[in-house]
Design goal:
The protein is α/β, with parallel strands linked by helices. The protein is built from eleven helices and 14 strands.
């Protein structure tokens, strides 16, 4: 029996669009058939580079012959409308992080896809790396015992030129936030994937190293999870480093600890040892000479993680199941980050995550 090939179209022509295009073209069971964007010249360039159609009219893009899936990678605060339009046209939708910049908009997207019986998936590629799966498995098997602390650290650098490269960057309306919403959100999502839902948060945010932006470039938050564990999240785009500092998650419990540095383990220690632990440290151990993935240069990332993310979406469509990151899963990090911003606006007051 012949397996269906899903035809993808990419809505957006920004920095992440080429990564998505390469990921889709590298997959089995997927075909990139079209780009949409407002800049006609840029659309023409991408269409020529990737051998597909190009559109500046979104309605015409949605009518492309056989289009099955729309991947939305417009500005963060401009995800809702193209998602709902695609859903109303009967297309499955994949949305770059964050799904949107408020939970209310995300809820509208989830509802639209449910009404039209199409899949809504988010792009959180860090969930798909082998070390993330091992970390999740260890947590699910309760190898940490009672988790006491669960932290995330993203101390990256973005130049002033980065924020000036697009009028939408650094704005509340279209960027939705700064270091937390746009850089640390991947690591925050992974932390929530492992730890479950947060209950409350206290936070403080500042803008210290960049001018002409509305959003934060430094943020610190203290979280209480529903499990009772406590945690700290630090995020910045003001931490200069030539190679970039890797993002890190630290999980510490009464029976074990693991520090996941980008996609490798700096610490993997458990009171009750298993035969595979030595192999995990050997195969997934952290190399201190490696720079952080995208830490200093947002373009310095591999498309492989995106490929794994898209492959899960295609597998979910074939199997009639939810993708690992559906709309509800993608919402969780946004809810936490919005609660952080609310807390910061209230002078660090404790805020419930909703």
């Amino acid at each position: 029996m012949e397996t269906k090939t899903y035809k993808f179209g990419i809505a957006g022509t920004g920095l992440i669009a080429p990564f998505q295009a390469k990921a889709i073209q590298a997959m089995e069971g997927a075909e990139l058939v079209a780009f949409h964007g407002r800049n006609a010249e840029r659309v023409k360039e991408l269409a020529a580079e990737y051998g597909c159609a190009g559109y500046t009219d979104y309605d015409e893009f949605l009518k492309h012959d056989g289009l099955d899936v729309v991947s939305v990678c417009t500005a963060s605060g401009a995800h809702r409308d193209p998602t709902i339009a695609a859903a109303n046209a009967g297309k499955h939708v994949v949305v770059e992080k964050p799904l949107e910049v408020t939970t209310e908009r995300v809820d509208e997207m989830i509802a639209a896809c449910a009404r039209n019986n199409v899949t809504l998936a988010g792009v959180f590629p860090r969930r798909y790396v082998p070390s993330a799966k091992l970390l999740k498995q260890a947590a699910d098997a309760e190898r940490f015992g009672r988790v006491i602390m669960a932290d995330a650290y993203v101390k990256w650098w973005r130049s002033q030129e980065y924020y000036e490269s697009g009028a939408w960057r650094g704005t509340w309306d279209l960027d939705g936030g700064g270091a937390m919403m746009n850089q640390a959100i991947h690591t925050i999502d992974l932390l929530l994937y492992v730890m479950g839902d947060p209950k409350t948060v206290r936070a403080e945010t500042k803008t210290v190293a960049h001018t002409g932006i509305e959003v934060e470039d430094v943020a610190v938050a203290m979280i209480e999870f529903e499990s009772g564990a406590m945690g700290v999240i630090q995020a910045s785009t003001a931490c200069w480093s030539e190679e970039g500092h890797p993002a890190e998650i630290q999980i510490c419990g009464t029976k074990g600890s693991a520090f996941m540095t980008d996609d490798k383990f700096r610490v993997w220690e458990f009171q009750h040892k298993l035969p595979e632990d030595d192999q995990i440290r050997a195969e997934h151990g952290f190399n201190p000479d490696a720079g952080g993935a995208g830490a200093a240069d947002p373009a310095a990332i591999s498309f492989l993680w995106h490929q794994w993310n898209f492959e899960d979406v295609v597998a979910a469509l074939r199997e009639g199941r939810k993708p690992l990151v559906d709309g509800t899963e993608g919402r969780r990090a946004i809810a936490l980050i919005r609660a952080m911003y609310e807390s910061s606006a209230k002078g660090g007051e404790k805020v419930e995550v909703r």
